[in-house]
Design goal:
The protein is mainly β. The protein contains one helix and 38 strands. The structure holds (Z)-L-Arabinonhydroximo-1,4-lactone.
């Protein structure tokens, strides 16, 4: 089939993949959002359907104090002998842990903690041994890719931690994954930082403890020299083999807007790049070490894309997420309507305001929804973090209703436009395009134009951090808001 990149659009960074029972499973980072670690299934590596999350209970992950872009960092998923494992870091408590399940559609276990620091933990199951690998500091205080053997039933270290590779010299050596391939070991990592200089590098050894020899043409994959090309920041990935023997890297990247001083606001997305192993055991990736927009591969199928996301065709437990740990009594969610009960927590707080969101999955399209409320404020937010968000809302001040467009850009908190309306309900609409969002409100059949706001100010380059724009429904100020006919349609 011919497929287009990205294969999963929107903020789903740090993908990790494993094959099991004729299917593929992928997990991504989730930071302060809950449930944590989105879980996807695929039969062809190109079409991915989210089937749930790995971290669904507060007892598995504490996010109460997680700042934006804190919380859960890059996870790894592995399958061994009938059991799936997901290992990750909760950076807000500074600990690495794994959970497991024998039923990929069911609940995962309580966490097992590993007494080894660093981020981006990974596991290798190898001939009865289990190795835990992260980017961190070993027992002697050396920094690099660090490895120890663990007892998978308890998480206890069975060996000291040792630094096994220092990378190819790029900054921010991270994302290590170890593979046993053809009786040798391949250690793949990312370097360069998760920005425009990001890259994938690797090394080989006959032994799991090294010595590792770096690939002479490292980085094996990077778009850092493709000035002006839309796909940038490719790196942090995981190797996977298809049944026909072909290999791929599933990895992150982002789509830049503009050419000079570019930016991106959808966060880091998931890309698929073919890999070719030579007879000498070294591999190359993509088009001369870069990731392209489109590939033709030997896997059968057609790339399908879901263009419309609404209350009927999404599942609150699968597609939507909350900020930190939600007060569940404030949400009444069904395929017909979402009823949200607002509290004194607002979108500007590092807390859990009443907020439920989908990722913005593509650049151009339309968001629509009808809303009614009793008091306070409720609406649709384009949410990057608590400092950067655009809110199209209805609110009630002194018994009078108005529709407002509120722009929050760092220290600037501004009501861009307000329109008095006669009723306690209205239709909100946002047109999304590469450079601007355009906001409208319809009341009593009359459509009001509330103006535009630039996508740039919600970008990672402005807001900083590791996340991407979410489309959130929210309520605040001790009220009740009813959302119906919600849809996001992408062009
Ligand atoms: C992740 C690290 C990275 O843990 O960004 O792109 C960090 N790479 O590997 C957060 O996503």
């Amino acid at each position: 089939m011919i497929y287009k990149n990205p294969v999963v659009k929107g903020f789903y960074p740090d993908p990790s993949v494993c094959a099991a029972n004729g299917r593929y499973y992928m997990v991504c980072s989730s930071f302060q959002f809950f449930p944590g670690v989105p879980l996807f299934e695929s039969t062809d590596l190109v079409n991915w359907k989210q089937i749930g999350h790995c971290l669904t209970r507060r007892s598995q992950v504490e996010l109460g104090n997680a700042v934006s872009s804190g919380g859960v960092y890059a996870p790894t998923i592995r399958y061994n002998n009938g059991t799936f494992y997901m290992v990750t870091t909760n950076t807000s408590v500074g600990r690495n842990f794994y959970i497991s399940t024998t039923d990929i559609c069911g609940e995962w276990s309580e966490p097992v903690f590993v007494d080894q620091g660093g981020i981006d933990p990974s596991l290798l199951f190898d001939d009865g041994h289990v190795y835990f690998i992260s980017n961190g500091t070993d027992d002697e205080g050396n920094e690099g890719i660090t490895q120890c053997e663990i007892d998978i039933s308890t998480g206890k270290k069975l060996s000291p931690s040792r630094t096994i590779w220092k990378g190819s010299g790029g900054r921010y050596l991270e994302s290590p994954h170890m593979y046993r391939i053809n009786d040798g070991y391949i250690l793949m990592a990312a370097e360069g930082g998760t920005e425009y200089g990001h890259m994938i590098t690797y090394a080989r050894s006959a032994s799991v403890w090294g010595e590792f020899e770096g690939y002479k043409n490292n980085p094996v994959l990077t778009n850092r020299n493709l000035g002006g090309f839309e796909i940038q920041g490719v790196g942090h990935g995981d190797l996977v083999q298809a049944p026909d023997g072909n290999w791929f890297i599933l990895h992150l990247g982002f789509r830049q807007i503009d050419r000079w001083m570019p930016y991106h606001h959808l966060g880091r997305e998931v890309f698929l790049t073919p890999v070719h192993f030579g007879n000498d055991g070294w591999f190359t990736a993509g088009d001369n070490g870069t990731t392209a927009h489109e590939y033709e591969i030997g896997i059968e199928g057609v790339q399908n894309e879901k263009k419309v996301w609404d209350l009927k065709n999404t599942d609150p437990a699968v597609d939507w997420c909350f900020m930190r740990h939600p007060e569940t009594e404030n949400y009444e969610l069904s395929g017909e309507r979402f009823i949200l009960h607002g509290t004194d927590k607002t979108l500007d707080d590092i807390a859990s305001p009443t907020f439920i969101a989908l990722r913005q999955k593509d650049l151009c399209g339309t968001i629509k929804c009808s809303i009614s409320l009793d008091r306070g404020e409720a609406g649709v937010t384009l949410f990057m973090d608590e400092q950067q968000h655009y809110d199209l809302a209805l609110r009630c001040e002194n018994g009078r209703f108005e529709a407002v467009l509120k722009l929050n850009i760092g220290d600037i908190k501004h009501v861009q436009k307000s329109v008095p309306i006669q009723d306690n309900n209205a239709v909100l609409e946002i047109e999304m395009s590469n450079f601007v969002y355009h906001f409208y409100v319809t009341s009593r059949g009359k459509k009001y134009d509330l103006g535009t706001a630039q996508t740039k100010y919600l970008s990672s380059e402005v807001a900083s951090g590791f996340t991407g724009v979410m489309i959130g429904l929210y309520a605040q100020q001790e009220n009740t808001a009813v959302f119906t006919d919600f849809s996001v349609s992408y062009d």
